[in-house]
């Protein structure tokens, strides 16, 4: 089978070209054609050597993901559903704002973490995406948006790995994808504008700090181990003390001098003044010096299987005010794209065969959350 060049960062593409008898500068040319210009036909890459253009179709391809569906929200948010084969699909979401355009990218088909408040976790885990499948979401969105706007200028300024899946449980595919996003010959995004969100896979946080430190967002959601064990089952493996230690260890390499903590607001579960006080004590008192951080409060997006409710607006504001008064910078995330199920925690990847998907979902829900977490832990330990 021919190689999909979306699977390669620049170093990988240089090695590929070297095997074909061509020097590194040819790989740079090829990389620019693919990522900066969005060209998928080798014959259109006019400054490549003729013999390379003629050879490439026999050994390589540039293969994106088929688009199964597109939905546009009233607020300008766009959600794409991509086919990744075998009845699986993943979603990416473009969120336009006045000063930036953000693409939320998926790293797995489904998710093994099983957080109570996340509909993606409730659908279970199918498989990791390849590097090419991660990159393909950005490749398609960037160049499709340019085409629609009639511009050659960059549209997507920020990428957040906050779509379907736990990025750090797909580490070996994630890091080359991040390098493509950051490379000046690719998308040229700054490290501050690429964010990896994690539920707390501590060993991979440590590796990311060494291999490709980008902005980090940690899904916290609770001020105590007892509550976080219920909401984020991975906490049973990596409890809060270990997680916050890993956050402190990440900061020297990070492009920002703080960690972003995500906190989904659940009515009567984690949103009381007492919870806020516990959270203040946790974040300001850890390791005797606290964790430099910003807190992002996320309104819960309900779905039937969760059994949870969104915190009232007044409770969210009071929670934020209490944290801000204690010196912890706290913001409330705007809900974007919720009319097309594109908001945080709603990406569930509808597939074409809804009957088969429902049957598969029912079987997966029969498994205990602990079983799903054990499978995730084995994956992480195998990658370490």
Automatic annotation (TrEMBL):
Molecular function (Gene Ontology), one example: tRNA binding
Q: Which residues bind [4Fe-4S] cluster?
A: 111, 115, 118
Entry annotation: catalytic residues: 91 (proton acceptor), 344 (s-methylcysteine intermediate)
Keywords attached to this entry: 4Fe-4S, Cytoplasm, Disulfide bond, Iron, Iron-sulfur, Metal-binding, Methyltransferase, rRNA processing, S-adenosyl-L-methionine, Transferase, tRNA processing
Q: What SUPFAM superfamilies does the record point to?
A: Radical SAM enzymes
Reaction(s) catalysed by this chain, per the record, are: adenosine(2503) in 23S rRNA + 2 reduced [2Fe-2S]-[ferredoxin] + 2 S-adenosyl-L-methionine = 2-methyladenosine(2503) in 23S rRNA + 5'-deoxyadenosine + L-methionine + 2 oxidized [2Fe-2S]-[ferredoxin] + S-adenosyl-L-homocysteine; adenosine(37) in tRNA + 2 reduced [2Fe-2S]-[ferredoxin] + 2 S-adenosyl-L-methionine = 2-methyladenosine(37) in tRNA + 5'-deoxyadenosine + L-methionine + 2 oxidized [2Fe-2S]-[ferredoxin] + S-adenosyl-L-homocysteine
Q: What else is known?
A: Reaction proceeds by a ping-pong mechanism involving intermediate methylation of a conserved cysteine residue.
**HAMAP family in the cross-refs:** RNA_methyltr_RlmN
Which protein is depicted?
A: Dual-specificity RNA methyltransferase RlmN
Q: Which organism is it from?
A: Tepidimonas thermarum
